[in-house]
Amino acid sequence: MVRFAHVSDIHIGGVTEKTLRRREEEAVNFFVQKCLQESVEFIVISGDLFDTNLPPMSEAIMATKNLRVLRDSGIRIYAVYGSHDYAPTHESLIELLAADGLIHVINGGIEDKSGVWLNGVHGLAGAKETSFYKQAENLVSPRRGNSVFAFHTGIYETNMIPKEQSIVLSSLPLGYAYYAGGHLHRKIEMRTAEGAPVNYPGPLFLGYGAADLENYLKGEETGFYIVDLDGDEVHYNYVPVRTINGEFLEVSADNKTDSDVSNEIRTKLSDTVKNLAPGSLVLLKVSGKLASGTRASVAVNVEKLRKQFREHEIKLNDRQLSEPDDVEIESGQQFEDRALEKIADAFPVRVDSTFVSRLIDVLSEERQEGMTVIDYRKKLLDNGLATLRAVLGEKLGVQN
Ligand SMILES: [Mn+2]
């Protein structure tokens, strides 16, 4: 029998508040301790270990310390890149960790000391299904019953993701005993036609952003799997991880004045914190269109309440709150998403908005001190073409 841990979407560095970073570290520490207790042979990280390719130094240190504890105990760590911790033309911290031997990046089949065969496909932004098929060709497992396939891609049948950004379940290569999924921020358990488990553990901690936090506080599960491979038998246990106590509060501003909204927030908040332990988190979502008054006055009021209830962490999400004179009730994020989709649609081949945003990112890199304009232009061009080529492959008829 071989025991391993399957974890995904840790998004280290995805939170900025000090208190949340402490909770994040607690979640990572808990994972490490559990892996040691359960004597896992190895760990599979199905992408998005970090929230960005180059996370803040403090977060990089926290992650490295924990990875080193695992390595020093003889636990091997395998990973595929996720959509967050990888950049086609920029450095990624994972490369450093791989160079140091803390992480083995799965690039083609690899046999673990335990005899388990591992293979996988990295999560790449843009035209996901195309890059998946390109990478997954000929990845059928040679070791039925003793093998793991790691991937960072949404599966269409989960109904969580549009078809063009996902793969269908049947496109996973056959013959593996366990399919370690990442990318979908929800615990999901499926089976291949051969009956092998296809599991998504969801985030270890929070995922990232207000929507994930909202789901978390509404009770969405977060955690990881401990998996036993025993010949053709596979057993797995989900280990829930919760380091944050809190509540989600929602206040609608529709047809209300800013002072009405502020009063409602105060009442609801006072009622809520009564039942919460100190140090709990309250995510307050205020959305809709005010009949009169300003967003700023609502925010100022929340700031006052923050002082009043300073034993708790109060997070305000007012991105969908608008004022009477606002012509658009669209949030900045919605506007950006819509603009990116429009640009994606204008491409002569099918790409998605994540690809467009990556291309913009690559092309907006600033010129470094000491770099000539000519070198800078060449770098942008090279990076831009590399990004295009990653998605379009042979279809791109541009010569260097
Ligand atoms: Mn993720």
Topology diagram in text:
Layout: E1 2-7, H1 18-37, E2 42-45, H2 57-72, E3 76-79, H3 93-99, E4 104-105, E5 110-111, E6 117-121, H4 128-136, E7 147-152, E8 154-155, E9 166-167, E10 178-182, E11 188-191, E12 197-200, H5 209-217, E13 223-230, E14 233-240, E15 246-252, H6 258-274, E16 281-289, H7 295-308, E17 313-317, E18 321-322, H8 332-346, H9 353-363, H10 373-392
Parallel strand pairs: 1-2, 2-3, 3-4, 6-7, 7-10, 8-9, 10-12, 15-16, 16-17, 16-18
Antiparallel strand pairs: 1-13, 5-6, 11-12, 13-14
Helix pairs in contact: 1-2, 6-7, 8-9, 9-10
Bound molecules: manganese (II) ion (MN).
Walkthrough of the structure:
This protein has 400 residues and is an alpha/beta fold. The chain has 3 domains: 2-240, Purple Acid Phosphatase, chain A, domain 2 (4-Layer Sandwich); 246-322, no CATH class; 332-395, no CATH class. The protein contains 10 helices and 18 strands. The protein has helices at residues 18-37, 57-72, 93-99, 128-136, 209-217, 258-274, 295-308, 332-346, 353-363, 373-392; strands spanning 2-7, 42-45, 76-79, 104-105, 110-111, 117-121, 147-152, 154-155, 166-167, 178-182, 188-191, 197-200, 223-230, 233-240, 246-252, 281-289, 313-317, 321-322. Helix 7 (295-308) links the parallel strand 16 and strand 17. Helix 6 runs parallel beside helix 7 (295-308) and helix 9 (353-363) runs antiparallel to helix 10 (373-392). It is globular. 38% of the residues are buried. Manganese (II) ion (MN) binds at residues 9, 11, 48, 82, 84, 183, 185.
